[in-house]
Amino acid sequence: MNNIRIFKNTTYQALARIATSGIGFLIAIVLARNFGASGYGEYIKITSFVSLFYLISDFGLNAIFLQAERKDLKFKDLFYLRILISLVLFALVNVIAVMLPYQKDLGFGFSPSVKFGIFIFSFSLFAQAILFSQSVIFQKKLRFDFLTKALTAGSALSLVFIVIFSYSSFPLIFILLSLLIGDFFSAFLALLFAKEKIFPFSFGVKASKELISKAFPLGLMLVFNLVYFRIDSLIIASYKSAHDVGIYALSFLFFDFLLSIPLFLSNSIYPTLLSNRENKNEFSKLVKKYAFVYLGLSLILAVPFWFVSPLFFLIKPEFANAIYPFRILLLGLPFFFLTSFFQWILIAFKKTGYLVRVYFFLMCANVLLNLIFVPKGSYIASAFITGICEVFVFVLLFYKLVLLKKNN
After folding, report:
1. pLDDT grade for 359, boundaries at 50, 70 and 90
2. What does 89-137 look like in DSSP terms, one character per residue?
């Protein structure tokens, strides 16, 4: 029965991702066909920079909230703490954006129009904060169907505005506003579906401090993981033209969609891992079973996407080169799937300190390698570096799991 619930909730998350990614693919195709690789690259600079801070807003607070045993810990504590974090991040994003480099003569870096776009799109941090907070309720109750409905409705609303603005030849800023409208509508619906009281306002300082304290190692791990995984696009933007940014971004858009699948499965499995971690035999069976599921899914997805990747040409001929970084990334897909699962096993056993060290090391290595090789190798170098680093993550996490099993 529990396996059925896990399957259903993984399916709901996948459907939500398909709906929201459909908007992303539509925007990508519209921008790519109308503005080419350079125009799409400018859009990616804006959205990639802001979304870099989304996981900082998450900061692992949901996982800690689910583990909490204190009865006086309220949903309001989590909700308003995350809103406060998003307010700080909003200010931080825009302060950093002002200082981002721009070489006007070469067209490298972040132009004034891109920086203004970052300011507009940074309001999405608040919508994400609300969605992150409500998702803990859906995760706890294994009712991701509510989250699916909220995200799908928001995506549909964004789609309506995007069609109107794009066919009316409105500038890029209106596309960003369309996304904001959809994000906040999804957040509003999630609030309704979760049925958790957020008024009257109350902020538990003691509870919030405890949440941050316990989530800090996991939050650091997520931040290091995000920087390690996303910094390549920003480095390409700093050293190469918007054309190169657009090529790499389009290939990564499709790859990132594939990477969301193990995340959905992990979100559904995590409560089960927590409830079975004291039962060694049952936990071992769960790990073995789902490890094969993750590996099988990665191979099932990698093979057909490898052969259909030449279809990038259909979007616009200048995107034909996106096939190369995409195929390089696909080679590492099984490692990405398995490390996603291994992360949450270690989190269930409160081994976040080890994860922090692993991702800090890989983040530094990734940044250094990209700084060395991107100026000459551009997006091809970044794709190889991303795959190689993930292999090292897999080895380090697998090694820790083996030790964990021996000691238990």
Report:
1. confident
2. HHHHHHHHHHH--EETTTTEE--HHHHHHHHHHTTHHHHHHHHHHHHHH
Write a three-state SS string for 174-185. Answer: HHHHHHHHHHHH
What is the model's pLDDT at position 262?
A: 82
Q: Report the C-alpha gap between 202 and 161 in whole angstroms.
A: 36
Other CB atoms within 10 A of residue 135 CB:
21
CB 269 within 8 A of CB 316: no
pLDDT at position 70 over 70? no
Helix (H) or strand (E) holding 1: none
Count, in order, helices (H) and strands (E) of the chain. Answer: 15, 2
Instruction: Identify the residue whose tokens are 């996948």.
Output: 14
Give the predicted TM-score (pTM) of the model. Answer: 0.69
Sorted by where each begins, the domain ranges of the chain are 2-407
Residue 91's pLDDT is 95
Other beta carbons within 10 Å of 267: 22
Buried b / exposed e along 365-389 (16+ C-beta atoms within 10 A): ebbebbeebbeeebbbbbbbbbbeb
Q: Give the pLDDT band of residue 227 (cuts 50, 70, 90).
A: confident
**Mean pLDDT in the chain?**
82
Cβ atoms of 237 and 376 within 8 Å: the answer is: no
